[in-house]
Amino acid sequence: MKTMKNSLVIALGLSLLVVLLGAYTRLSDSGLGCPDWPGCYGHIAVPTSVSDIQAAQVAFPNAKPVIAEKAWPEMIHRYLAGTFGLFTISISVYHIYYNIQRKAASILLFLVLFQATLGLWTVTLKLHPLVVMLHLLGGFTISILLLWLKLGTKQSYSYMDKWAYAILAIILMQVFFGAWTSANYSSLICPDFPFCQGKLFPEMNFQEAFSLLSPIGSNYEFGVLDNVSRVTIHMTHRYFAIVTGFVIITFLICAFYKECASKKVILTVGFLLFTQILLGILNVILLLPTHIALAHNLCGLLLLLSWICLTHSLQNNTSTL
Hints:
Layout: H1 2-27, H2 50-59, H3 68-97, H4 102-124, H5 129-151, H6 161-183, H7 206-209, H8 227-258, H9 263-285, H10 290-313
């Protein structure tokens, strides 16, 4: 059992790394660095020799020319994700076989397999926003399930549990808005803060902005939506961030005074929330620098995981603070 606990810690660490590398792949516009899957221009690795590059261009005449700087981030992400996937499958099978949190382990197993399928569709459907968004959410969800298996069955219950789970749903909705913003290349559409193109409440078109079933066959690299739709997506993410921050802070204050959770966990969630808000603002005013954008992705996942820890540890009037 101790070995499995250690394996879960390693898997959780790998999941963070895979999510971070996936974010870098998107930010460096390397999502279509390889036109096929799981290889790259028909090779196991990125073709580098003149003859291999020429053969790749002949084999994939409709694809972009081989650009190693774009192809390598994509392939490294695939190698790491594949290794992580196999490791996670073994963890899931172990839990299912020994009937340890079988339901969560079964969902994890399904998600890992589906995540690989989404990786394939991300390339073959040319960064279709729905697929990209589901791929991002899938990575976050896998991390959540690994943490849930690590924490084990919740031992005590609190009258604040339902509130905590409701806020978890709100956080997940905010993650969805963030993923949809990234998938539709809407991060840079509002270069000013707190305004967007000089307006606090710009023109919006929710019907077009959140139409999930975009036509299949188009190349969605760099996005295809018009200015108003992208503004709608970006500002919805901002507006909902205010709602998310408010409910989290309110809950933390109540949990602190009612002594329902460890002060350390409460302070951790608060710190991550403040950091995430700051990183989001910096992303706008500094025009999405890669290191800030990566930190924003990672901090968002850590905030979500810390909320899981907080929810899992809630109890009534604990005296161990």
